[in-house]
Amino acid sequence: MQKGSIRVQTENIFPIIKKFLYSEHDIFLRELISNAVDATQKLKTLASIGEAKGELGDMSITVSLDPAAKTITISDKGVGMTAGEVDKYINQVAFSGAEEFLNKYKGQNENNIIGHFGLGFYSSFMVSNQVEIVTKSFKNEEAVRWECDGSPEYILEETTKEQRGTDIVLHINEESTEFLDAGRINTVLKKFCRFLPVPIFFEGNQVNNPVPAWTRKPSELTAQDYQDFYKELYPYNEPPLFWIHLNVDYPFNLTGILYFPKIKQSFEIQKDKIQLYSNQVFVTDEVKDIVPEFLMLLQGVIDSPDIPLNVSRSYLQGDPNVKKINNHITKKVADKLEEIFNSNRSEFEEKWENLGLFVKYGMMTDDKFLEKANRFHIMQDAVSGSFYTLEEYKTATESLQKNNEGKQVIIYATDTVQQDAFIKAAVDKGYRVVKLETIVDAAFINQMEMKWNDVHFIRVDADIADNLIDKQESSASVLTNEQEDQLKKLFEHQPAGLHMTVEMKGLSPEAPPVVATRPEFMRRMKDMAAVSGPMGSFYASMPDEVTLTVNGNHPIYQQILSQKDAGQQEKMTRNLADLALLSQGLLKGAALTEFIARSVNLMDSRGESNISNS
């Protein structure tokens, strides 16, 4: 029997490893099973080049739980270790057996080796007060047993073991008894080990899929295979819109499948749905450094052994490969969207309600994506339902919708029901109105006005239809100057919470008598303030700006001005103003109650007048 002290390569590293190596203690199971996978893969490699003789037989890994004995055992049937190898790889902390193996058999091993750090085994001491290793090498040397209680002292002795491979026995400490629950172990296995490349069994059940879809060639997979894998990842989700299979081996290694999920208008943004793997070992679902921010709403898996990780494999580190991978994913997504748009535009348009969020978010945040997306970003007509690219919209509106600065004006609606009257008025002028009604559109409009420098957006209810493109002089009014002044005074009432401006116009007699509009700039500021929290409190606290455009050519004003009762004139003009405010959703609370009461009173008084005249 050999006794000794573990030879650490940095003074006092052992207690640090034991307590603080990993941010989450459940990661010990991932590290130990990863080591078992490595041992299995090494044996397959050695057998393939003739260095390991005989039948390999069952190569599965087993996790066993004994709550009574307070132990967890991880057993593999891989290469095993000789006494010398235990001394070399276990007793010298941070000397990585996987790293040495990779160097020795570089170019020969077809099976991926997971470990690179040499510290994974010691994660076992985060949850154990004693750890045993019982191992027998494929070289048929005597089996050995190693034991350590979490101090630098260890025992290494010969023992008996019939089968090739290694058993790691963890004697769970009092602080970690949660891991003696089968349900807890099963959860950890599903989290970290569900796609490891060697079959893993727990309580008689296989807990992993060793050949997940992303490890296979796209040519081998059907649409149903991709759908089934999505269901495996997200069993309660609706089927995805489509997917992108990543498969790159130069200048970096990257595989994976990214899915575009269905996203409704009323949704909560749920990020961290893409899982990062390294050689099928789960690493993290925080992939913001690898995946462009605008694609964080995608779902699926990315696997790359070239993404650098720190010693605990828990956090990404800065590296040129990460940026290259980020750029590659952006390009692949843009290429896929453009391919669908060009090959099956009708399908693309059908999915736009869900796709638009990704595309607009990407156009705002990534200029390389914007460059490509300009060709497949589409806008839906608020009336016909047809779609335009930016260039198609420009062509369709070239003659009518350029302002006095020469910019193309995109007229848009955010609520086709509430803004119906404004849309009809604009369409009657020959204008094209598009729908921009998602939660990102307010920010999208502001960004695109900067990025598309020859375009200006204006909401359909930002002004009367005559003024949407260029401010025009008032048309001739049938009212005298004195009558206009009298009407203007009747309309100059300031409702609570509003800052209202009144202007007189001579519009068509068929146009509404009063139109309420909200100036584009201030409305945008208020909209942005509503979603920007405390930063937007200045604009959010300001009263709503509204302009009342009074159409002096509407015949109702001849009737109002002929009224002898000044009170009746005021009631009628106030009602017309309130109707206009109501169309903008700006008549609320006490003002709305007053409007209803006034309307009833006006109907009663007109009824009495009609009776007396009969």
Automatic annotation (TrEMBL):
ATP binds at E31, N35, D76, M81, S96, G97, T166, R313. SUPFAM superfamilies: ATPase domain of HSP90 chaperone/DNA topoisomerase II/histidine kinase, Ribosomal protein S5 domain 2-like. InterPro entries: HATPase_C_sf, HSP90_C, Hsp90_fam, Hsp90_N, Ribosomal_Su5_D2-typ_SF. One of its GO terms (molecular function) is ATP hydrolysis activity. Pfam families: HATPase_c_3, HSP90. The keyword Nucleotide-binding applies. Keywords: ATP-binding, Chaperone, Cytoplasm, Nucleotide-binding, Stress response. Belongs to the heat shock protein 90 family. PANTHER family: HEAT SHOCK PROTEIN 90 FAMILY MEMBER. This is Chaperone protein HtpG. The lineage of its organism: Bacteria, Pseudomonadati, Bacteroidota, Chitinophagia, Chitinophagales.
